[in-house]
Design a protein that fits this description.
The protein is an alpha/beta fold and about 140 residues long. The chain has helices at about 45-55, 70-90, 100-110, 120-140, and strands spanning about 5-10, 15-20, 25-35, 40, 55-60, 90-95.
Length: about 140
């Protein structure tokens, strides 16, 4: 695989979680959660992340229903992925993100209880889980 550093995104209409990962270690870390307004991201903040981390590719979580069918937000996430490709001229991979938010919530709760459940932590942790799942599936781990 020619990709070393990747950024992962957990797209949402109000928040977008971001994580950074390495194909060499097949691991990722949550970075931050960006605000979005009706699915429109803060492109300046995304540009700063791209400039800072210089990723070789991006991974976007695509939300699907449990039966694999698209839901309302699926189209918005696909649009976000297409915009990333066009703006930054990077390869953008799509990753099924079913259950990542639930898993992220459980991980945060296990670490710190109910008071630790903050949306910003959950979104960036969900991005980490999406990116690690992609790395395990596609990198030579």
């Amino acid at each position: 695989m020619t990709h070393t550093t990747l950024l992962g995104f957990d797209f949402g209409m109000k928040r977008i979680g971001v994580a950074v990962g390495q194909a060499i270690t097949c691991s990722a870390n949550p970075l931050m959660t960006l605000s979005a307004k009706h699915g429109k991201p803060d492109w300046r903040a995304i540009t700063e992340l791209i400039d800072t981390w210089c990723p070789d590719a991006l991974v976007i979580g695509i939300p699907l229903n449990m039966d694999g069918s698209p839901q309302f937000i699926t189209r918005a996430a696909e649009h976000f992925a297409a915009q990333l490709e066009k703006r930054y001229l990077l390869t953008v991979y799509r990753m099924d993100e079913r259950l990542t938010t639930i898993a992220a919530r459980a991980e945060v709760f296990d670490a710190g209880g109910y008071k630790a459940l903050q949306a910003s932590q959950i979104d960036s942790l969900a991005a980490k889980l999406i990116l690690e799942a992609w790395l395990l599936e596609h990198a030579e781990c």
